[in-house]
Design a protein that fits this description.
243 residues; alpha+beta; Jelly Rolls; Arc Repressor Mutant, subunit A; 2 domains; 3-stranded antiparallel beta sheet; 11 helices; globular; disordered C terminus; binds zinc ion
Length: 243
């Protein structure tokens, strides 16, 4: 079933996914598309199959920083659907992809009827909060190169080694100036870890990139493993197979 391309939907009991499926549709996510504005009612809940969604905080001086990343391991909009349907953050598509989507009211009704769906959504919310807390600590304490390596490692997990990424977007997500991105990307390129030409970033050596990353990526990965053990085991197997 295509909806199971999303890890969370794939972990539902078949009977629950069958109940959900008639209300899900699959859409394309375009890079840069805004899915939620701060303090606006969400229109859809997104279960990505591919691509990356970013939760972004915008400050009064115009600077921005990413506080959370959602890929095919997660969902955006579920906790809002269960509550008042309002997003507190800006959420945008960072890397294009596809997602299964559902209306928030419909998801709320189905979560009340399907205990495994509700439990899964609550568990993911717990993971996401931990991810955001780790990111807050990381942004405050770790240096730009370590954070960049962590960020690229997480993106590698979610979408693989080829990323379409302008320096401007790179800087906005990291909360740094473009010149800092140029310096860090130049150093990683000189050491043979990445190639980065005209907005196309290719991760050449993920093992070395992870060695230079701060511990935060591993912490987030192990949190996910604790909460979704079977999914994490499958993912680990995939990683071993793909090298
Ligand atoms: Zn960190």
């Amino acid at each position: 079933m295509p909806h199971a391309s999303n890890f969370l939907l794939g972990r539902l009991a078949q009977t629950s996914l069958a109940r959900l499926a008639p209300h899900l549709s699959i859409i394309e996510l375009a890079a840069g598309e805004v899915l939620a504005e701060p303090y606006q009612r969400i229109q859809r809940v997104y279960f990505p199959h591919s691509g990356i969604l970013s939760c972004i905080v915008e400050l009064a001086d115009g600077s921005t920083i990413e506080t959370g990343m959602i890929g095919n391991d997660g969902v955006f909009g579920a906790s809002q659907a269960l509550d008042d349907k309002v997003s507190l953050n800006l959420v945008a598509v960072q890397i294009a992809g596809r997602a299964s989507v559902i209306g928030p009211d419909r998801l709320c009704v189905l979560a009340a009827e399907l205990p495994d769906l509700k439990a899964l959504l609550i568990r993911y919310e717990q993971f996401f909060l931990a991810q955001v807390q780790q990111t807050a600590a990381c942004n405050a304490v770790h240096d730009i190169e370590a954070r960049t390596c962590k960020w690229l490692s997480r993106m590698h997990d979610l979408v693989g080694p080829d990323l379409s990424l302008t320096q401007e977007l790179f800087a906005r997500m990291m909360g740094v100036r473009r010149t800092s991105v140029t310096t860090v990307a130049g150093a990683l390129q000189a050491d043979g870890l990445i190639s980065y030409v005209r907005g196309r970033l290719h991760i050449i050596d993920i093992a070395q990139l992870r060695k230079r990353a701060c511990e935060c990526d591993e912490v987030v990965r192990s949190n996910y493993g604790r909460l979704f053990q079977a999914a994490a085991t499958d993912k680990l197997k995939d990683k071993c197979v793909s090298g």
